[in-house]
C-alpha cells in the first residue's frame, strides 16, 4: 500500500505545482473560451495554441516575410553603399576649397 501512495503524493505535488503556477487557471479559461465559441474551429489544438500565444505565422506568411526581409536587406545595403559614396564626395569637396585658397 505504501508504494501506491507514493505516486499519488507525486501527483498531488504536481497538481499543486500546476495550480500555484497558474497553468490550471489558464488552461481552464482557454477551454471555457473554446466551449463558448459559437462556431467551433476545425482544429482545437490550433485554437489553444493561438490563445496561448504560441501560434507562429502561417507558412505562406513566413515565406512572404522572408522575401520581404531579403528585399529590405538588399535595399539597406545599397543605401549604405550610396551613403558611403556621398560621404566620400562630400569629403573631396570639403578638402578641395581649402587647398585652392592656399594657392
From TrEMBL:
<feature type="coiled-coil region">
    <location>
        <begin position="62"/>
        <end position="96"/>
    </location>
</feature>
<keyword id="KW-0539">Nucleus</keyword>
<dbReference type="GO" id="GO:0003713">
    <property type="term" value="F:transcription coactivator activity"/>
</dbReference>
<dbReference type="GO" id="GO:0005634">
    <property type="term" value="C:nucleus"/>
</dbReference>
<keyword id="KW-0175">Coiled coil</keyword>
<protein>
    <submittedName>
        <fullName>MYC binding protein</fullName>
    </submittedName>
</protein>
<dbReference type="InterPro" id="IPR026060">
    <property type="entry name" value="AMY1"/>
</dbReference>
<comment type="similarity">
    <text>Belongs to the AMY1 family.</text>
</comment>
Amino acid at each position: 500500500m505504501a508504494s501506491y501512495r507514493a505516486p499519488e503524493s507525486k501527483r498531488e505535488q504536481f497538481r499543486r505545482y500546476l495550480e500555484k503556477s497558474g497553468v490550471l487557471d489558464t488552461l481552464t479559461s482557454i477551454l471555457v473560451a473554446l466551449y463558448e465559441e459559437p462556431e467551433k474551429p476545425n482544429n482545437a489544438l490550433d485554437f489553444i495554441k493561438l490563445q496561448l500565444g504560441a501560434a507562429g505565422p502561417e507558412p505562406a506568411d513566413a515565406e512572404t516575410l522572408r522575401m520581404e526581409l531579403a528585399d529590405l536587406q538588399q535595399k539597406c545595403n545599397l543605401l549604405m553603399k550610396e551613403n558611403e559614396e556621398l560621404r566620400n564626395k562630400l569629403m573631396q569637396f570639403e578638402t578641395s576649397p581649402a587647398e585652392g585658397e592656399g594657392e
